[in-house]
Each structure stands twice: as C-alpha cells, then as structure tokens.
Specification:
The chain has about 350 residues and is α/β, with parallel strands linked by helices. It is built from twelve helices and 14 strands. The structure holds UDP-4-deoxy-4-formamido-beta-L-arabinopyranose.
C-alpha cells in the first residue's frame, strides 16, 4: 500500500482528496497547521471511509504542524522511513489561499506559501521522495476578457496569492531542469473548487470571515448573513458580473488521484495542467442556480469591484483530460445541491 503525504490535508480540498485516496487504497499521512481547518474533518474522513479503529494506524495518520517548520517536516519523512512505510509522493496543498487577503498581507503569503514549500522540497530531497503533485492556481494567469486559458496562456498574477503560486511553479521548474533531476512534478492549476462531499459530512468551512463566494453564499442562504454583496455589476461580461470556472471539489479530488497514478508510473515528468470544467458561470448565474436547485431565496446587492478580481477565469482543460484520462462529472447544479446539503448537515451537527 503506497504512502502519500498530504500537506494541508484537513482543509476543504485536502480533506476531499484524502477521502478519494483512502477509497483508492492508499495509505495517507496528513499534516496540517489547522490555521484554516479543523480536526473535525479527520473524524469526517474516517466516518465517510468507514475506517474502523483496527485499520486506522495503517491507513491514516495526522500530525499537526506547519510547513514553515523544517524540523517538523524532516521528522515526518524520517518517521515514515523508520516505520518502513516511506512516503512515496506528496500532494502539496498547505498554504494560504485568499486572493483578497493576500493583497492585505503579502509577506505572510510569501513566507507561508513560498518558504514553506522550499522547506518541503528540501525535506523531500533529503529523504529521497521523488514525486509531488502541487496545488497551483488559475490566478497565475494574466486576466483575459473572454478567452479560455490554456497552460501556455500569458502568465501575470494580479494578486500576491497568485504570485506566490507562480513562484513555487518556477522553483519546481528549476528543480525539474537541474542535472540531478529524477523528480516527477505535476502542477495542477485549480480554477474555482466548490461544492461538498455527497454525504454532507465534509465541505468548505474556512475559519473566521470567509472570502470566497460559496461559503459566503451559504451563510446568506442560511440566514447567518443578511445579504450577498456582488462585487461589481460593470464587468465586461454578458450580465456584468465576473465569470469563473467552478469545479466540484470531488472532481478536483479525482484529478489528484489521476495525477498521482500518472507520476507514480513515470520518470522525470514536469507538467502543468488546468483543472477546470471549461464552463464559465457568472456570479449572477451561480446565485440563480443556487436558488433554483435548493428552492430558496435570499437578498443580494451590487457593490464596487473587489481588489484582485478579474472578469473572466475559465479553463481550456483539454491537456488535463488527455494526460490524466480524467473528466469532470458534476454540474453547477450538483455543486449547489451538495454545498447546501453540507451546510444544513453541519448546522444540525452543531445544534
Ligand atoms: C468568485 C467570484 C468575486 C465573494 C478563488 C480562490 C483562490 C483560487 C481561485 C485556487 C468573484 C465574486 C465573491 C462575494 C462576490 N483558487 N464574489 N461576492 O476570487 O475567483 O479565487 O479561486 O487557487 O484560492 O480564492 O474566488 O470565490 O472569492 O470569488 O461577488 O462575497 O465571486 O468577485 O468574481 P476567486 P471567490
């Protein structure tokens, strides 16, 4: 049973990837600082995967810690070797991820995302771990008005968050080009991951004030927030609101399984892949779809544009489809239904 290290594995995306990894018979080691996640997700992963206690030690271990801590990272790799279950690959998600917040705290983003990744890569080199799937982002691209983005589209992040993701890709590219290279590296450029596991036991639950559309929309629909503010109605799009490529988090998780299979059966691979559906939806279309499929209504109003936003971010995902033999299965309807089910389930859980 191959052992995979998932950094940031208790976060929104990481926890869903962990469910898919266990279901595909991998053994996983999760590290997470819990800065934007909760240990409740560990219980949910185990519950969804029906991991009874006698299998636990073999299949899933969790260590609280930060990728900024070099000693902690080295300990994780060394312990796995000492336990005779070396880490065969890393799925690297740990990092700060709010476009908007990064414009207010750029140095925090540089330290956590870039220095943290440098620490991880050094630990991987010391302990001879050759495979990494990196959680990159569509925010590294130069904004376009209405063109689908390919992996060769112009790069030009407009937020510190996007700049840190591009910097990490460049670090990995230099590593891949280095003489001693026998690493396998895949950069998965996420578009907008949303939705929740169909069980309603896992979903997007950022700590503190959410920045992203779906967690805020769920708070408005559940009455926690009075109304949704839509950032800008004067964008150059069909209805004036920004267009994004929303992808169900379980489709994203499956893309990681395919990427892992790809690199574990390759040698000296370096590839960037757009992980999106290729379908753009405006903020207003998301709001209308959510209300329709969940038979609910809520207030929204148009306010000024948000710093760091761009009008249109939609993937040309053909390279990922062909390279990974992967295809997104879920629609925006599914994303809205599953996200709402999670919200209702988690509200009831804490009643
Ligand atoms: C989506 C749209 C907002 C909140 C995200 C992640 C980032 C990266 C890319 C992976 C925008 C609008 C939002 C609100 C609104 N993911 N909006 N009112 O900015 O595309 O970035 O995807 O790397 O990590 O943050 O996502 O959900 O913040 O915004 O009108 O209250 O919704 O203007 O057009 P974004 P988002």
């Amino acid at each position: 049973m191959k052992k995979i290290l998932v950094t940031g594995g208790l976060g929104f995306i990481g926890s869903h990837i962990c469910v898919s990894l266990i279901e595909k018979n991998y053994s996983i080691c999760i590290i997470d600082s819990l800065i934007n996640s909760s240990e409740d997700n560990l219980l949910s992963i185990k519950k969804i995967c029906n991991l009874s206690n006698n299998f636990l030690e073999d299949r899933i271990t969790f260590f609280k810690g930060d990728i900024k801590n070099k000693r902690f990272l080295k300990h994780i790799f060394k312990k796995a070797i000492d336990d005779k279950k070396p880490i065969e690959a890393v799925i690297h998600l740990a990092g700060l991820k709010s476009v908007n917040e990064s414009t207010e705290e750029p140095l925090t983003y540089w330290e956590t995302n870039v220095v943290g990744t440098l620490n991880l890569l050094e630990a991987m080199q010391i302990y001879n771990c050759k495979n990494i799937v990196f959680s990159s982002s569509a925010t590294i691209y130069r904004p376009t008005i209405n063109e689908l983005l390919t992996e060769n589209s112009d790069l030009g992040p407009i937020s510190p968050y996007g700049t840190t993701k591009l910097t990490i890709e460049k670090m990995l590219e230099d590593l891949a080009k280095s003489k001693k290279n026998d690493l396998n590296i895949i950069n998965l450029r996420y578009f907008n991951p949303v939705g929740a596991h169909i069980s309603g036991l896992l979903g997007e639950n950022p700590k503190g004030k959410p920045n992203n559309l779906f967690p805020i929309l769920l708070k408005v629909a559940s009455g926690e927030y009075k109304k949704l503010s839509i950032f800008g109605a004067d964008w150059p799009t069909h209805d004036g609101t920004c267009i994004r490529d929303y992808i169900h988090v379980m489709d994203l998780a499956e893309a990681h399984i395919s990427a892992l299979n790809f690199i574990l059966n390759s040698s000296s691979v370096f590839i960037n892949l757009n992980i999106g559906t290729g379908i753009g939806k405006s903020v207003l279309e998301v709001v209308e779809t959510f209300m329709k499929v969940n038979k609910c209504e809520f207030e929204y109003s148009f306010v000024s544009r948000r710093q760091g936003d761009s009008p249109y971010l939609v993937a040309d995902n053909r390279l990922a489809l062909s390279t990974l033999n992967w295809k997104p299965q879920k629609s925006l309807n599914d994303m809205c239904i599953d996200a709402w089910k999670w919200k209702i389930t988690s509200k009831n859980k804490f009643k």
